[in-house]
């Protein structure tokens, strides 16, 4: 494999997601070892990786993505030994969460060791660490023998990539290698929890739900408004806490309910806004659940279906792909339905709120 120095060519290599060819993995690890960048699949989204101990390579991640320099990265590890290199003063609750969720989609924010480059942490005294639950990611970290620093493999602000075609769309010609391992498993980024404080603080919701964290720890988890996507943190304590994220190029209007048990108020509001915008000569697309899609489709609207409200894993898996497909419809604006914030629904709403340019909250009248 030739390492691309001038970044005019990006090599794409395909591997089996469950049984990756170790010859290919070793070649990609050599690219990272030489200071290159690679995009690779994790169980959540595709990551844009560099040798976590190579300052110059880490800085290339920020340049390639157009990422603000105060937005820290996650260090991905494959062993307890790597984890121990990165952190100090680890509280007991961190080990409980590690036993529960690793390898898997949970990132812990802990006090960093002197070995962690300041470029990775944006100068913060803490570092975000996780052990990914994907054979390709784990094999690549093992082959490199060092932590991999990686955010999502997309241009900053764009929807995160859940398959290699999304990465190629954003980063072709900007990175050295794209490892195509097919679709990711979950489709939204990892849960991030700060365990340096008491109670622990949810920084970004993800596949590991707050309800699961509370059950494992037996204590309250603080959920600030920025973790719900309702505001921005004053300081980027981890990825996903500041700045607009996940946005399609098409402006997005998000319609929310206080109570989703009766969808009539939701569909009525979505349709009213769609009709109002259409009357102004705008082309409108609607992002909906499978339960309501036909309601809009028979009225002549282009509809993108996220999945069933009874299967939020399906909705999360499809979310970023649908946001990217939205642009292919060439609509002037898209209207998206909101979802209940229970379990994985909190992560879905965090992403939709951060993607939306406009929000409408509907409170159904009391009966």
List keywords for this structure.
disordered N terminus, 2 domains, about 375 residues, 15 strands, ten-stranded mixed sheet, alpha/beta, five-stranded parallel sheet, Rossmann fold, globular, about 20% strand, DHBP synthase, 12 helices
Structural notes for this entry:
- Helix 1 crosses helix 6.
- The chain has twelve helices and 15 strands.
- It has a ten-stranded mixed β-sheet with strand order 1-8-2-3-7-4-6-5-9-10, sandwiched between helices.
- With 367 residues, the chain is α/β, with parallel strands linked by helices.
- 32% of the residues lie in helices and 19% in strands.
- It has two domains: 218 residues, DHBP synthase, CATH 3.90.870; 111 residues, Threonylcarbamoyl-AMP synthase, C-terminal domain (Rossmann fold, 3-Layer(aba) Sandwich).
Task: Write a brief caption for the model.
With 367 residues, this protein is an alpha/beta fold. It has helices at 22-33, 55-65, 80-86, 92-101, 118-121, 135-144, 164-171, 210-217, 264-279, 293-297, 312-328, 345-355; strands spanning 11-14, 38-41, 46-51, 74-76, 106-111, 126-130, 148-150, 177-180, 191-194, 201-204, 252-257, 284-289, 302-307, 333-337, 358-362.
Number of helices: 12
Shape: globular
Oligomer classification: single chain
Stretches where pLDDT is under 50 for at least 5 consecutive residues are 1-6
CATH architectural category of the largest domain: Alpha-Beta Complex
Through-space gap between termini: 67 Å
CATH topology (level 3) name of the largest domain: DHBP synthase
Secondary structure blueprint with pairings:
Elements: E1 11-14, H1 22-33, E2 38-41, E3 46-51, H2 55-65, E4 74-76, H3 80-86, H4 92-101, E5 106-111, H5 118-121, E6 126-130, H6 135-144, E7 148-150, H7 164-171, E8 177-180, E9 191-194, E10 201-204, H8 210-217, E11 252-257, H9 264-279, E12 284-289, H10 293-297, E13 302-307, H11 312-328, E14 333-337, H12 345-355, E15 358-362
Parallel strand pairs: 1-8, 2-8, 4-6, 5-9, 11-14, 11-15, 12-13, 12-14
Antiparallel strand pairs: 2-3, 3-7, 4-7, 5-6, 9-10
Helix pairs in contact: 1-6
């Amino acid at each position: 494999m030739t390492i691309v120095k001038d970044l005019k060519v990006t090599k794409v290599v395909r591997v089996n997601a469950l049984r990756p060819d170790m010859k290919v993995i070793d070649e990609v690890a050599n690219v990272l070892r030489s200071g290159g960048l690679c995009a690779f699949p994790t169980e959540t989204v595709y990551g844009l990786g560099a040798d976590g101990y190579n300052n110059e390579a880490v800085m290339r991640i920020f340049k390639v993505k157009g990422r603000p320099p105060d937005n820290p990265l996650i260090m991905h590890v494959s062993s307890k030994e790597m984890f121990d290199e990165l952190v100090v003063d680890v509280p007991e609750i961190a080990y409980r969460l590690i036993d529960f969720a690793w390898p898997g989609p949970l990132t812990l924010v802990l006090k960093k060791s002197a070995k962690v480059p300041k470029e990775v942490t944006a100068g913060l005294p803490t570092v975000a660490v996780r052990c990914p639950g994907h054979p390709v990611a784990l094999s690549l970290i093992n082959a490199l023998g060092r932590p991999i620093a990686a955010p999502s493999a997309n241009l900053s602000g764009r929807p995160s990539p859940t398959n290699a075609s999304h990465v190629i769309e954003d980063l072709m010609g900007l990175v050295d290698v794209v490892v195509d391992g097919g679709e990711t498993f979950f489709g939204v980024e990892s849960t991030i929890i700060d365990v340096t404080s008491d109670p622990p603080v949810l920084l970004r919701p993800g596949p590991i739900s707050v309800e699961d964290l509370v059950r494992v720890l037996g204590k309250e988890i603080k959920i600030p408004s920025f973790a719900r996507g309702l505001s921005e943190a004053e300081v980027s304590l981890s990825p996903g806490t500041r700045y607009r994220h996940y946005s399609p190029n098409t402006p997005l209007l998000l319609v929310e309910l206080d109570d989703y048990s009766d969808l009539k108020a939701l569909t009525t509001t979505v349709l009213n806004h769609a009709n109002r915008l259409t009357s102004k000569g705008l082309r409108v697309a609607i992002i909906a659940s499978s339960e309501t899609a036909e309601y809009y489709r028979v009225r002549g609207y282009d509809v993108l279906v996220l999945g069933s409200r009874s299967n939020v894993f399906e909705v999360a898996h499809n979310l970023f792909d649908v946001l990217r497909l939205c642009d292919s419809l060439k609509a002037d604006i898209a209207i998206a339905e909101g979802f209940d914030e229970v379990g994985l629904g909190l992560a879905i709403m965090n992403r939709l709120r951060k993607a939306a340019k406009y929000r409408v909250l509907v409170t159904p009248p009391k009966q």
